[in-house]
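the two lines:
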Amino acid sequence: MQTPAHAGRLITPAMVGVALVLLTVPLWIAKVGLYQYIGVEILIWAIYALGFNLLLGTAGLPSFGHGAFFGIGAYAFGLTQFHVAANLWVCLLGGILAASLAGALVAGFVARRRGIYFAFLTIAFGQVFWFIAMKARNVTGGEDGLLPIARLPADFGIVSFDLTGNTALYFFVLALFLATVVALWRLTYSPFGRVLSAIRQSELRAAHLGYQVVLFKMLAFIVSAAFAGLAGSLFAMAQGGAFPEVMALHYSGYIVMMVLVGGGLVSFWGPVIGVVVFLLARDLLGAVTLTWMLWFGLLFVAVILFKPEGIAGVFQDLRRRFSRQPAAPAQPAARSTS
Amino acid sequence: MSALEARQVHVRFGDRVVLEEMNFSVAPGELHGIMGPNGAGKTTFFNVLTGRVRPSRGQVLVDGKDVTGLPPHRIAALGVARSFQIMTLFDEFSALENVALARPAFRAQALHGHRAAIGDPEADAAARLVLDEVGLGSKADVLARDLSYGERRALEIAVALAQEPRVLCLDEPTSGLGSDGIARIAEMVRRLKGRLAIVAIEHDMEFLFGLADRISVVHWGQVIAHGRPDELKANPWVRRSNLGRFG
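prediction for all of em together
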């Protein structure tokens, strides 16, 4: 991922544009044949995918067990609600903390591994957590799930917003999505994020420049797990329960697919694109055929074969083609503008 | 006191002895060349000096302090920088970003996640200065992967230089270059000479004999000859290796 323009800014024009579009979604989403809940779902998975891409796209660490942290966030949100305090902020904090702690535990084992060994270990840990969620019926409710998790009101002291409606929940999740975008943009282009990217490009050089590679990898893993925990918490609230399904191996695979298809390796926004395409494909193709996954799988294969940079990579190519001045001498693009 | 010293360093991988017994030292401001045939263990020796390989026996000292077995990032933090024979750059970063990331000031704030890494004019100026030094001043914004081979060789050194090291280890800095490129790198190293301790592995005899204060000839995992360039010219092994063409 090349350093884009505006990398030094806290809020970029692209963010403002995305925010404006997303704010209008509840006005027209029903008119185009969709429904409010899909908007909530897309934003939650987008938070998850952006956090995941700090690990995959920036640090170059392929985790195939990230569903575990999403699921742990969901369960922790519910358990905090049942056993600690039925307060939205406390429950969100519980979800994020639980996922971060689990992330720290796993990171301790996987951060020294690379490539296929890293991937396999994350699969193994993902399976362990999934198995625990399935079998610890007393705590998690097993296959039936942890029910019923309430959509707690967003209490700001003087005002309190009821989030039981899908539109209200959409705006709440949108606020957290935008906060996530700002935080992760800043983190990706902070000194910390630059070192993560350097480690992906050459771990050897980074180490010889004085960077403690393992520490950086662990921190990236934990931060990424924390965002998965936040997304999982919101998902529990959206679904009204926490279920082991999202922790299963194929769900951990979905997030990898979303990020790769969208173009997370070349663009900050790639994961968001991937989530939108994946979930819309599920609903729109799914309405036509039960085998929608077959078609999405073929799309995935096509992307990997013909455009490994994903959909965002196609956009970047198009922009480069249109922005090229015919009269100017050919110059190598020093910086992408995504 | 030596800036960097190796005492009786022995390295074996399994049952294969790569370094038998390496004794070596470089003083502050000195340029110490290392030459020898392929497979003599020169790069392995560099890996020991910079912490990538832990020696089976022996000691490595930086400014008299024992650093044997410390990991690369700790040795780098002590002021020992290295370049790589096989180019090891951050290809998706611009030349400026490559250099900026290597600076100790950047490293000191590397865990900062709350502020932007870009747009600090002071840091930018410092990084540009390093690029100027290796003649890449006009290429600051070009991605490392888009630079020419010769420019990448220069950037390889610039990144190590940006670490503001006290000891600079150069692993075949002219590898793959033509005579013009070699001359440019030689000129660059000549300007650096005296400012810091430099250890250079090099195959190009003219380069080495023109620049080095002392040279160690490495063969079979040990130093088989050692001395000033003029002393070494009389050495039979050195003579056999075609030095006559340049000397």
